[in-house]
Amino acid sequence: MTVPGATTIPLDPLTTVLVLPDGAVHSRGTLLSGPGSEQELMDQAWLFPREQATNLQRPVRVSIGRPTGSVERYLLAADGTLTEVPAHPPTAVLDPPDPRWDDGMPQHSAMLETARAAERAGDWRAAQVAAERLAAHVLKDFGEQHPHAVLAQELQGHLAVRAKDWASAARLHTSAAAGRNRLLAPSEATERALKNAVYAWMQAPLDTGLTETGYTLAHLLVRVAPTVPGPIAAVLSRLKPAWTR
């Protein structure tokens, strides 16, 4: 996959796999668990990238996040040959960055200022309502594949943290981090968004919906920040199947 203005990614796609502390495996939105061994569960997780490599007739990348926070990285060739590698190519970013990340949302500046004014006044509920309205307008005008949509989510997440609405903050910051990564934003900003997501998610009480957010977050960490084990280990430590809690 080559993106104009971006670092070339010579091998794509990348499949991420999570190994949970109890040996369960999560891959492509599915929790693999049960009576089988961890190796048997991993064999199931390998089925999709093997099929991909065969169909594409070129190598694909696989990253496996472990409970310690370490990430194993592999190249899987079309003939099934598996090679462990020290690193995958870095996440692409646009160079120079898209200027819309820093333009102040000129088309929606009035709504942005309403949210900021409520924040300055310490009226978190009014600020959250204003930010939600801003996000809805940006989404309607530009769609989700636009930096302003991500920025509006980040503002919502920031205000949710200030209001100690941890569940909303975790969902919003995780979605914003994924959006930054998808839109090839500057890497330091994506990493900051990930830190915000991890912080909020670790504060929030887990339920079924937030557990799914946790899986999304853990896969994103393995994909974007594989050399930073602490957040990966912290998130995986909470992602236990419900019957083991």
Question: What do these coordinates show?
Answer:
By secondary structure, this protein is of the alpha+beta class. It has helices at residues 38-56, 109-120, 124-142, 147-162, 166-182, 187-203, 208-224, 229-238, and strands at 14-19, 25-27, 30-32, 60-65, 71-76, 82-85. Helices cover 52% and strands 11% of the residues. The protein has a 6-stranded mixed β-sheet, sandwiched between helices. Strand 5 and strand 6 (82-85) form a beta hairpin. Residues 1-10 have low confidence and may be disordered.
Write the layout of secondary structure elements.
Blueprint: E1 14-19, E2 25-27, E3 30-32, H1 38-56, E4 60-65, E5 71-76, E6 82-85, H2 109-120, H3 124-142, H4 147-162, H5 166-182, H6 187-203, H7 208-224, H8 229-238
Parallel strand pairs: 1-4
Antiparallel strand pairs: 1-2, 2-3, 4-5, 5-6
Helix pairs in contact: 2-3, 3-4, 4-5, 5-6, 5-7, 6-7, 6-8, 7-8
Jot down its keywords:
single chain, 245 residues, alpha+beta, 8 helices, 6 strands, disordered N terminus
Summarize the structure.
The chain is an alpha+beta fold. It has helices at residues 38-56, 109-120, 124-142, 147-162, 166-182, 187-203, 208-224, 229-238, and strands spanning 14-19, 25-27, 30-32, 60-65, 71-76, 82-85.
Mean pLDDT over the full residue set: 91
Portion in beta strands: 5-15%
Radius of gyration: 19 Å
**Number of contiguous helices:** 8
Largest sheet strand order: 3-2-1-4-5-6
Helix content: 40-55%
Distance between the termini: 41 Å
H/E topology pattern: EEEHEEEHHHHHHH
Please give the largest β-sheet.
6 strands, mixed
Based on DSSP secondary structure assignment, what is the total number of beta strands? 6
Q: State the low-pLDDT regions, or none.
A: 1-10
How would you classify the quaternary structure? single chain
- Overall shape: it is globular
* Structural class computed from helices and strand pairing: alpha+beta
